[in-house]
Fold Putative two-component response regulator.
Amino acid sequence: MNEKPYILCIDDEFFILWNLKEQLKKVFGTSFTIETAESAEAAKEIIKEIDTANADLCVVICDHVMPGQKGDEFLIEMQKTHPRTKKIMLTGQAPAQAIGNALNHGCLYRYLSKPWDAHDLELTIKQAIDAYFQEKSLEEKNKELADTLYYHRDTKYPNFESLVKELKGNNLSNTNQSILLLKIVTFPTIIKTFGIEVYRKIFRKVLQLLSVHLQNEHKVFHLYSDEIAILSNLSEQALVDAVRSFRMILKSDEFFLDGVGFHLDCRYASASGQEDCYYKAKLALFQAEFQNTMDFVSYTEDLSTDHHLQNFQVSQKIHTAISQKNIIPYFQGILDNQTKEIRKFECLARIRDRDTILTPDVFLKLAKVTGSIRMIGLQMIDESMQYFSNHPYDFSINLTESELEYKSFSKWVESRLSQYKIDPTRVTFEILEDISFSEHKHSLSTIKDLKTIGCQIAIDDFGVQYSNLSRLLEFNPDFLKIDGKFIKNLPENKTAYLLVQGIVELARGIGAKVVAEFVDRPAIQDLVESLGIEYSQGYLFMKPSAAIPEASSLKL
């Protein structure tokens, strides 16, 4: 049974301490344990016991004038070990300097003077308790998200983001390291023949055997569904030698799982260096796959062709931008065709690279290949919410499968909304066309969770790839964004007009509103309005911009 949370009262006057405890017991006694101490030293012993029981110390109420350590000194010291605990000074003799010290260095939650008003004291403690548990909940949600970000959801081994973080840390300390990549190329065949669950069991067994074989001398990462990385402080040759004998286990038909033998065809590549060693090893892995060899391929300078080098340079810029928080939103207005006002904006990802702004056509595919698309998406959401916490407009943000497939994503969104004090109904998440719910089954439940929070959902690029009629059976969207392929030729193409007309009628039937994208000519806008489409978006009204224009320019 879990310990009840604690409220700790500290005062050197017995009668005051007794009176304070009795008052608090009447209001909080059923849900909280009320502890008392007559000095800071006694309080520290009680706090040790609370910590040992792993219980919550929600509130400390402390006098200033006490034997031994003074109240402000005690609270300042306690802030270092219990920053979340709410600290209240209840005293009639504290000088202004002591109160200032507690406020500035002890994060004093409130100061109350003696004799206290009973109602004011009770209300203050209730508010302090609420604040404590709100902060605790937010920390737990952020920790859950951090675990999701840095560890593979199936095997719980550190993932690609964790590797990037490790390489960056080693780079700051100017440490050379070696890396070896192992890719199981029979991955698709095993899944097709035996199913994904069998493959996951095989992969987990490979990781376990590899970890035991290396005896914790090297760090193992599960990067992707078919790729493992091994990071070492030893030389590249020493790392290759350590893995060479392990390769014999995988080459053998004696690799058994539940009585069935498997032959695992793998590719191996290695490199050394600092933060760039992964990218070098990746080039070597491309070479190993091209040569269809099971030998170890080491990175050499001649592998860096101009095309590959350019891709890796851009990938480095992506990771630098993520670490330096240079993922920035650009905004494009969405016109309400009834009011002729722009009251909503789509947030579009850009990367700031010194004096240059990189657009998605430069970095998006590489971000997906390297796995950094998820961090770009999370930073975009955070930056967009922060921006619109100071602007009274609705806004929409694109989601990829990288965000939707993680169970804690909706909780993270909820914590961001709470932090920036944004009404969830102001936020629309646009589901991109390359998401397949049959391949990422958790994505659908994440969308439902977002709708439960109060956010709205739009199907982006409706009519192409996965964004077809079957999606309407999977969830109830609030908006359909008609793909620009249909809109840009609307005046000249009768088939496009009929298709758009059908989509509009379908949207009305399911209660969804329609947004026409790529509206760049008055002739297109005239037809959009004649079809009764509620919203228009395109260069005719506004190009993507780093800032929202003045309100006077948002009305046409």
